[in-house]
Amino acid sequence: MLEIGLFLPDSGIVSKNADDVWQHLIVGGESNAQFRAWRKPRAARMVFMLGGAPGGGGGGGAANTAGSTKGGGGGGGSGATTRCLYPAWVLPDILHVAVPRGGVGGTGKAAGSAGSGGAGGSPVGELSVRSFPAAATVNYYLHAQSATGGGGGTTAAAGSGGSAGGSSTINGHEHWGIFQTSAGQAGAAGGSTGAGGSITPSSSSPATGGAGGGGSSTGNNAGGSINAVANSLYRAVAGGAAGSNDGSSAALILSILESPLFIGGAGGGASNSGVGGRGGAAARLCAGGGGGGGGVTASGGGHGGHGGDGFVLFVAW
Q1: Do residues 286 and 207 touch, judged by C-beta distance below 8 A?
Q2: pLDDT of residue 89
Q3: How far is it, in rounded angstroms, from Cα 208 to Cα 234?
Q4: From residue 186, how far is each of 25, 38, 222, 282 by CA, in Å?
Q5: pLDDT tens-place string over residues 71-127
Q6: In the beta sheet, which residues pair with residue 24?
Q7: Checking DSSP bridges between strand 127-130 and strand 36-39, what pairing results, if any?
Q8: What is the DSSP string of 175-223?
Q9: CB burial class (10 A; 0-12, 13-18, 19+) of residue 152?
Q10: Alpha-carbon span 125 to 104, nearest angstrom
Q11: Cβ neighbours of residue 127 closer than 8 Å, sequence gap 6 or more
């Protein structure tokens, strides 16, 4: 079947294969309270939605004199994810989609931010798919909560890890289909005068928080890492080595259509003689950014890495 005008303008990435399966990925960018629209294919019988709220940015590392405490920034939390499978007849012909951007990493000693956006009066950073733009939850067919950014390091302590996006509640429409929700993962704290905290991916969430930046007093220390998980697709992401070294971002091995895993950024290294290393950015959607490492006053603390954008994937057949 040929579908003309299946998706409205500027609505994301669209593909249709020979078996009449439509795939449509909408990635975050709604910082100015706008919606994008998705139009249901006329031939569809079932519609699957996977949504992930944005991750928080990593906190910036503190700057202080050599030999004094220079706390590393905390990693940003990861956003919640929600999955729904609906009979197509339950859905209206057009759904309104609000997909926020990921949080911005903090500059020296500043906290990272939560995801931006919040179209139609909904909370800042909330991802939603609605029958009508108004924020009343009776209009929701899918939503997910964003994470917060990591705390900035100080001259007395490390920055705390950002909190995870909370799991969603059923608002009514989800009873028509199959509904599953997963809370995100909190970011790791930075190091006060030692290495930043590391992150181990959790089986309860497909998205990881960001690792913490290293802290320093009299020496250099490494940033936290994202740990590998044996017999899985999670690979190690190295924290910045001790000194003015940046945290890494994960290499993208598979696309979202092949593997819905979202990996956060590693923490920056701390230096007692130079600038703090920058936190790594989230390599994939809805994960947390890494915290920046502490540095000396003249050079400054490292900036936190940016959190991953929110997204919604529609698959109709």
Answers
A1: yes
A2: 95
A3: 10
A4: 26, 31, 20, 14
A5: 999 999 999 999 999 999 999 999 988 888 999 999 989 999 998 765 555 556 688
A6: 14, 314
A7: unpaired
A8: GGSEEEEE---PPPPPPSSSPPPPB---TT-SBPPPPPPP-BSSS-BPP
A9: buried
A10: 12
A11: 51, 52, 53, 54, 79, 98, 99, 100, 142, 143, 144, 146, 310, 311, 312
Distances from the Cα of 9 to the Cα of 5, 93, 128, 259, 262, angstroms = 9, 16, 19, 27, 28
Residue 231 or 64, more confident? 64
Token digits of residue 313? 């994937």
Token pair of 1, please? 């079947």
Q: Give ∠ CA 274-271-239 in degrees, rounded to 5.
A: 125
Tokens representing 256? 């979202």
Q: How far apart are CA 282 and CA 306, in angstroms?
A: 6
Alpha-carbon gap, residue 237 to 280, rounded angstroms? 9
Rounded distance between C-alpha atoms, residue 282 and residue 45, angstroms:
35
Edge to edge, the sheet with strand 81-87 lists 13-16, 22-27, 311-316, 46-52, 81-87, 178-182
pLDDT digits over 20-59, tens only? 788 888 887 655 557 888 999 989 999 999 999 999 999 9
Specify the pLDDT at position 11.
Answer: 45
For residue 314, the surrounding DSSP H or E stretch is strand 311-316
User: For the chain, what is the radius of gyration of the CA atoms?
Assistant: 20
Q: What's the CA gap between 124 and 113, in Å, rounded?
A: 11
Alpha carbons 239 and 241: distance in angstroms, whole number: 6
